[in-house]
């Protein structure tokens, strides 16, 4: 299995295991989450899933769900029973780094609002022994972003303002109108404490550490698909 195959396998397995008729589902953002949204759309179109509504985490996901005919809801109308989304890194304790796709604030709002938590879908390359293999995204206010990056650097990282993928001379702007700082740490040994420290910084709106939010991870690799359940807290 190569390329996007494992992502698709994980996403399809998660939808078929966890999504039921009558359910409100948080719809994630990113390449793996897209496979999950597409699978939900297929099952809605075939009639295998009925009266399902999605709460999207980005404008991209909203457009995809509309294209697929998935009815949508807002958080003021209903809270999801669960959210299906991807991750950039997954620790053995199911702490996550998310947000390299640019939607971390809305992803965290929807995941945190989900009654049964977050179902993570990923290929096996996303599993890590300790978080911080790659950068940690932090969504920041555009006002005074230089000062916010200085404050983030004081936590022991090298922060860099994310530039737009299509126009690298201007900053990337999230759906909420914010900037993103990509913070390179040597390693993250205590994700919960680091999350608290980051959110104490004025201008740091939310960070890509998702701690105690994942109910399970559905991970696909060369030898098949595994379901890793979160340990009871």
Any descriptors?
single chain, alpha/beta, Alpha-Beta Plaits, 6-stranded mixed sheet, Rossmann fold, 4-stranded antiparallel sheet, 6 helices, 233 residues, 2 domains
What does this entry show, briefly?
By secondary structure, this protein is α/β, with parallel strands linked by helices. The protein is 29% helix and 24% strand.
Q: Which percent range fits the helix content?
A: 25-40%
Helix and strand content put the structural class at alpha/beta
Overall shape: it is: globular
For the biggest β-sheet, the strand order reads 2-1-3-6-12-13
Overall pLDDT, averaged?
A: 96
Strand content: 15-25%
Count of domain modules: 2
The CATH topology name of the largest domain reads Rossmann fold
Count up the helices: 6
Number of E-type strands: 13
* CATH class group of the largest domain: Alpha Beta
Question: Secondary-structure element sequence?
Answer: HEHEHEEEHEEHEEHEEEE
| CA-atom Rg in angstroms | 17 Å
What are the SSEs and their pairings?
Layout: H1 5-18, E1 24-27, H2 31-46, E2 53-56, H3 59-68, E3 82-85, E4 89-90, E5 96-97, H4 104-112, E6 118-123, E7 136-140, H5 145-153, E8 158-161, E9 179-184, H6 191-199, E10 204-207, E11 209-210, E12 214-221, E13 224-229
Parallel strand pairs: 1-2, 1-3, 3-6, 6-12
Antiparallel strand pairs: 4-5, 5-11, 7-9, 7-10, 8-9, 12-13
Structure, described:
The protein has two domains: 5-127 and 211-222, Rossmann fold; 136-206, Alpha-Beta Plaits, CATH 3.30.70.260. Helices cover 29% and strands 24% of the residues. The protein starts with a helix and ends with a strand. The chain has helices at residues 5-18, 31-46, 59-68, 104-112, 145-153, 191-199, and strands spanning 24-27, 53-56, 82-85, 89-90, 96-97, 118-123, 136-140, 158-161, 179-184, 204-207, 209-210, 214-221, 224-229. The radius of gyration is 17 Å and the shape is globular. α1 crosses α2 and α2 (31-46) packs parallel to α3. It has a six-stranded mixed beta sheet with strand order 2-1-3-6-12-13, with helices on both faces. It has a four-stranded antiparallel beta sheet with strand order 8-9-7-10. A three-stranded antiparallel beta sheet has the order 4-5-11, covered by helices on one side. The chain is α/β, with parallel strands linked by helices and 233 residues long. The model has no long low-confidence stretch (mean pLDDT 96).
């Amino acid at each position: 299995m190569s390329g996007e195959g494992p992502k698709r396998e994980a996403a399809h397995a998660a939808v078929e295991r966890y999504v039921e008729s009558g359910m409100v589902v948080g719809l994630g953002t990113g390449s793996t989450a897209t496979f999950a949204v597409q699978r939900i759309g297929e099952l809605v179109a075939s009639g295998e899933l009925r009266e399902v509504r999605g709460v999207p985490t980005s404008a991209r996901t909203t457009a995809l769900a509309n294209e697929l005919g998935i009815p949508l809801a807002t958080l003021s109308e209903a809270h999801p029973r669960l959210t299906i989304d991807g991750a950039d890194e997954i620790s053995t304790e199911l702490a996550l780094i998310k947000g390299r796709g640019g939607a971390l604030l809305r992803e965290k709002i929807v995941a945190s609002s989900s009654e049964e938590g977050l179902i993570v879908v990923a290929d096996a390359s996303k599993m890590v022994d300790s978080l911080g293999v790659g950068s940690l995204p932090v969504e920041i206010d555009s006002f005074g972003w230089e000062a916010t990056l200085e404050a983030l650097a004081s936590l022991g990282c090298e922060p860099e303002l994310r530039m737009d993928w299509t126009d690298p001379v201007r900053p990337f702007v999230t759906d909420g109108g914010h900037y993103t700082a990509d913070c390179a740490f040597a390693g993250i040994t205590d994700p919960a404490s680091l999350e608290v420290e980051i959110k104490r910084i004025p201008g740091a709106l939310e960070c890509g550490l998702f701690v105690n939010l994942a109910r399970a991870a559905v991970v696909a690799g060369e030898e098949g698909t595994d379901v890793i359940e979160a340990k009871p807290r």
